[in-house]
Structures
1.
Amino acid sequence: MNTLTPRLKIAIAIATAGRRDVLSDTVGRLGGQTRMADELLICPARERDFDPACLAAYPGAARVFHGPVGSSPQRNVLLEATAADVVIFFDDDFLPADDYVAEVEMFFTAHPGVVVATGELVADGIIGPGLAHDEGLRLLREAGANRVNFSIVTTHNGYGCNMAVRMAAIRRHRVRFDEHLPLYAWLEDLDFSRQLAAHGEIVRFSRLRGVHLGTKGSGRSPGLRLGYSQIANPVYLARKGTMAWPLARRHMARNLLANAARSLAPEPWVDRRGRLRGNLLAIRDWARGRVDPRRILDF
């Protein structure tokens, strides 16, 4: 006698700050999923960061929460709020393919050992000036589905703009985003993934597709703060044990060199000089034995 596989309960979770209109456009996009999420959970940093009118046309269940400002505490609020089997974390400027949720359900049902799955980016505006909503939709439409030549590969960590996580492991082991990483919480996705790595597989599944707009001016971290985090956060995570020292050193060196080289002729959309000042301040604090990710709250 055949038994039907129980349907997974899937939630989409979005922590947002300083992108009221961008979030509204993204919520509109989420209403077109071929398999609707069982619930949409949103945690704005401040009341002004969310327009309730954006949910008027959303066809599914949605809830809005408020918590401490910062990507990590906001995401933790959403983890605590849901009884879902799988939570998909999207950035507020991530546009998923229409079948993203359906593909997540299929994948997590078929691969019970996976605890984190991250998708393939059709385009990532974070490495440039960012992409407009309409341009992101065009790129997504032109890319189409990837149902034939797809891949499932082991990866070091999920990419926070689009990663699905299995809640059973999170609840069993009380895994949370580290709230010692404030505001933008640089590398919190890596830390969270490596906490879960002891309890299952972390993979990249190329049938999970989307466009990360990389919208600039999120309101979380000006150049000085982000530059400090680029040094302080890898040091903190290496000491904590979720980031190997060689990887931490590569991250720090890459960002320091990029900020130093480009500060002479910075891109219009990047505060390179502010980042470089933050890098150097964190290195000075590190040498003095006082480097701490939370210092950016004083800047």
Note: The CA atoms of residues 15 and 74 lie 6 Å apart.
2.
Amino acid sequence: MGIHVASVPAGHVYVRHLSPAGGGDGVERLPDPRPGTDIPDAQWWPPPMLESTWVREHSGDFDLMHIHFGFDAKSPDQLRELVAALRVEGKPLVLTVHDLRNPHHPEPGLHDQQLSVLALAADALITLTPGAASEIQRRWGRQAHVLPHPHVVEEPTLSRPRPQHDGFVVGVHAKSLRASMDPLPVVEAIAEVLPTLPGGRLRVDAHTDVMTPGFTNHAPALATGLRRLEAQGRIELSVHDYFSDAELWDYLQGLDASVLPYRFGTHSGWLEACHDLGTTVIAPDCGFYAEQRPCLTYAADPASERSASLQRAVQDAYHRRPHWRADPAQRMRERDQLAEAHRVIYADVLTRSAACTS
């Protein structure tokens, strides 16, 4: 008999790749409830599964709940109501701690409260790195299973050769400027050191909503700074809407190094995609990026050391040209192992839940 999981969410690439490529692991994740048929797949909305009313109305549809993302839309009190509803219905809770610090929140307080409700109530905890597990133990006295991030890129792209290009291309992507991002000082530091590296080029990408006055996410200081550097011929600036997956993979494989311009954070799906595609990552030393996959690091704090350490990392990437790329066959084996590890965790919490109610 299969295990039915109310996964929050189910459609995210991380969650999709917790199932074996061929299926058949006996775990079925309920599809994400959609607020309407006209909502694009890429658009985020508050997960209905996190409503206590949804739990009560759909208790016959699932055996346990597994939360990954989306709970930042709920207050701590609403999450307590969710936990209470799960307990009443006899449904275990599994939590994967992806972010110990929410990249969308400028301050950590609210996320700390939200995460505490779930971490203390969960029947099992999972995280991606030993460092994050140690932090979970320190904060809540809970032991978390450490399971790596699955592959992000699909075949045949996962196995395709990297395209050849002239020079050495460093990329910084400002995306839609999360609270955790501070790209302009990072770009300025790289632009300063690149003239000392023959053939070095700096490509900076930013989304249209960040660069365009009148848009909700417009960042005037960043837009002005990037346009200035572009006019000086120090960067190659590309302004566009969100990449499709295929466009993103082409972009990443056109870089020799991708710099993560983060002030804080925990783990990174972007880093995993770069690992899949063979693009060197230069990440800040906050969080646990260096425990996820091989990468170069620079100082996130103090700010006085950030530029110099970043410049050294770019020079290291230029001179050393690391060849860190996932082996596709190993990625598939890892995916099967992750699927089995999750199935075992689910079976264990269901067994313990049944013992408590018998």
Note: The longest strand covers residues 200-207.
